[in-house]
Write a structure and sequence with these properties.
Elements lengths: L3 E2 L20 H30 L4 H24 L1 H8 L7 E3 L11 E6 L2 E8 L7 E7 L9 E5 L5 E3 L2 H7 L8 E2 L1 H8 L4
Antiparallel strand pairs: 1-8, 2-3, 3-4, 4-5, 5-6, 6-7
Length: 197
């Protein structure tokens, strides 16, 4: 995997980063569309999986979510045909431009809304974790589809300004170089692009 710098990379030729461009910019719009489409596809797949687990394969609720998933897949394939596979993959590799918030949370249960972020072509559920004196800013990142086998990742900004993540990219490629202040894994790069870490 490629190590990413803390800043969002500029476009070729020194152009402004996509996040700073006008919303009508064609390249920005294509990236937003691709990232939204990917998140919708992942959410519909997770909904279908949950419905099948709760109600079985032939329950009307499951059929509803199966139809929604098929529609999301058809829309995704139309987007692939319109943008092209290479452009779609390049758009998904961009830092996140969109955040999808589901629900309003439940104050009675102290449950926050579900906040989804696209990271390197996959949808992650983000949850701010209470910080500590050593790591005042912490996030838990749970991949939506397919779920991670070894649990969520935790990313943080330490009190000294450096960042850490417990993903394999950070642990085996970045931590070993001792370059945690200058280099980010894909999770830290996404959080930094959003201004969250």
């Amino acid at each position: 995997m490629v190590n990413r710098d803390q800043r969002e990379p500029s476009a070729p030729g020194g152009a402004r980063p996509l996040r700073d461009r006008d919303e009508s910019d064609p390249q920005r719009r294509a990236v937003e569309l691709a990232q939204r489409g990917r998140m919708i596809l992942d959410v519909s797949a997770a909904d279908l999986e949950a419905a099948e687990a709760a109600y079985g394969a032939f329950h009307p609720t499951t059929w509803h979510f199966r139809n929604a998933w098929h529609e999301a897949r058809r829309s995704w394939e139309r987007l692939r045909a319109e943008l092209g596979t290479r452009a779609l993959e390049a758009a998904l590799d961009q830092p996140p431009l969109v955040v999808l918030t589901l629900g309003q949370g439940d104050p009675a249960r102290r449950a926050p809304p579900v906040v989804l972020v696209p990271i390197a072509g996959q949808t992650y559920c983000t949850h701010r974790v209470a910080g500590t004196e050593l790591a005042p800013v912490q996030w838990r990142l749970t991949r939506l589809q397919p779920p991670l086998e070894n649990g969520p990742y935790y990313a943080c900004r330490l009190a000294d300004g450096s960042t850490q993540c417990d993903c394999a990219e950070w642990t085996y490629q970045i931590a070993e170089t001792g370059d945690g202040r200058k280099t980010h894994c894909k999770h830290l790069a996404a959080l930094a692009a959003l201004g969250w870490i």
